[in-house]
Amino acid sequence: MEQAVKQFAKDGKTPAKYSDFRKLLERQDVHAIINATPDHWHTLVNLAATRAGKDVYGEKPLTLTLDEGKHVIGAVRKHKTVFQTGTQQRSDARFRLACELVRNGRLGKLKAVNVWLPAGLRGGPFKPVSVPQELDWDFWLGQAPKVEYVPERCHAKFRYWYDYSGGTMTDWGAHHNDIALWAIGLPGPVSVEGRPLVQMIPGGYTAFSEYEVKFEFANELPLNVRTTTADDPGGRAIDPEGQRNGIRFEGTDGWIWVSRGTLKGSDKGLIETPLPETATRLYSSNDHMGNFFDCVRSRKLPVADVEAGHRSASISHLGAIALRTGLNLKWDPIKEKFEGDDSKAGNAYVTREMRKPYDYSFV
User: Fold this and answer.
1) 166: exposed, middle or buried (C-beta count within 10 Å: 0-12, 13-18, 19+)?
2) Which residues fall within 8 angstroms of residue 303, CB to CB, at 6 or more apart?
């Protein structure tokens, strides 16, 4: 915290510092916040900020569990606040065009969507050590189970523990699955099954690092999600000639590949031929944070409103649940619950017990 205060000091003025975000939210001169906490804190911070009347730019994934999304959506709508989810690919012209091309039938009938995500970390076992003096470990853990301090549970590596996140499925998956959903135009899949490709090391990271997951939508469209070891967990190339992360839309008339910085098709005309004036167009934003601030002023919905954030988080949570259960699960995207023979096993993951006092009463 002291390092952050020093970094943002300017013109002799030192920023105020808080060890409890609730105190910050009491300030009347704070109108909007950026929530970039670890995933397991997203919901409580977002709820507290929204109830305090603050607009929120909330990092992805929106939630830790499927059920938390309903609470956040309800609060945002009740208090009429602006909420932008940090799925910034929606403000990239390449991703938007790819989705518009799919929506307008440029590929003919869409036959499959294939998503590649970077593989996660696989390491361990890790030994507990003393908690650093400057860290309030109990507060950091929040709603998650009480455990001894392990440095690998913190910082960017929190993503590889199911206690706090869902691995690359809910990290990169919240980005690429969001784009897949944007193009498909349906609220979510009706079934999901998955399998890990490697087993995790006992006493180490718990979120599966390499896996494949298959979703199916009501129109029988498959969405296949696989990991690739050609990229590191941050999306940087390990093998530039290997399978990079991104999204491939396959139709009867060709394919389109889109990733950060790349948009190409089986034929140049698929990309370069302009859509007609009558074509379906998607929300146009070319600056994700700028779009948020524009909507703070106008009170309009941003490009990645809380509902979109919930849906992109939901499909990623579904993938993580399928991997953890090893079952072919049936999902109702309208009722937002598992159905069928294995519904009990799936629905056991829709919510999680929140460790007191860090439950919904905390905010």
Assistant:
1) buried
2) 84, 90, 91, 283, 285, 288, 291
Find all residues with CB under 8 Å of 215, minimum gap 6, and list them: 189, 191, 192, 222, 223, 224, 225, 315, 318, 319
- pTM equals 0.96
What is the torsional sign of CA 196, 218, 307, 279?
positive
pLDDT tens track for 320-340: 999 999 999 999 999 999 999
Nearest to 83 by CA among 299, 313, 286: 299
Q: How do residues 89-138 score in pLDDT, each as one tens digit?
A: 999 999 999 999 999 999 999 999 999 999 999 999 999 999 999 999 99
| Bond into 145 cis (ω within 30) | no
Query: Is the N-terminal amide bond of 118 cis, ω within 30° of 0?
Result: no
Q: Contact, 226 vs 116, CB < 8 A?
A: yes
HSE (CB half, 13 Å, CA atoms) of 115?
27
Gyration radius of the chain over CA positions: 21
